[in-house]
Design goal:
3-stranded mixed β-sheet; about 120 residues; about 15% strand; single chain; 3 strands; elongated
């Protein structure tokens, strides 16, 4: 299957934003976050960046504000790295999939513990 240009650029944006967050930015509000994915609009003008904060979902709103405040840094760095006509604008979204997976796992564990073994008849 042929990889779409938007997918290749989304992966490159994800990699660069992750590098910037972990090695360049010193804002304590974004400590410990992980970029889980990037989706590009078809015109490549907007990058929707999804992040998670393992074990601390209550920090999501402050992290989102910190990331929005760092948009200029992201845009400047990406303009140097990506060979694109336009540098995308960024939208940040908290990715709840990790918490949902943990909840599902705990429900399955609970079901398994409550299951009564069947007796031979």
């Amino acid at each position: 299957m042929k990889v779409q240009r938007t997918d290749r650029i989304a992966e490159e944006v994800r990699r660069e934003v992750s590098q910037l967050i972990h090695f360049e930015l010193s804002d304590p509000r974004i400590y410990g976050i992980s970029v889980t994915g990037v989706k590009m609009t078809p015109d490549l003008r907007v990058a929707r960046i999804y992040f998670t904060i393992p074990g601390e979902p209550d920090r999501a709103e402050s992290v989102k504000k910190a990331l929005q405040g760092a948009q200029g840094i992201f845009r400047k760095a990406l303009s140097k790295k990506l060979n694109m006509k336009f540098v995308p604008n960024f939208e940040f979204f908290y990715d709840e999939s990790m918490e949902l997976q943990d909840k599902i796992d705990s429900l399955f564990k609970e079901i398994k513990e409550k299951k009564v073994p069947e007796e031979d008849v």
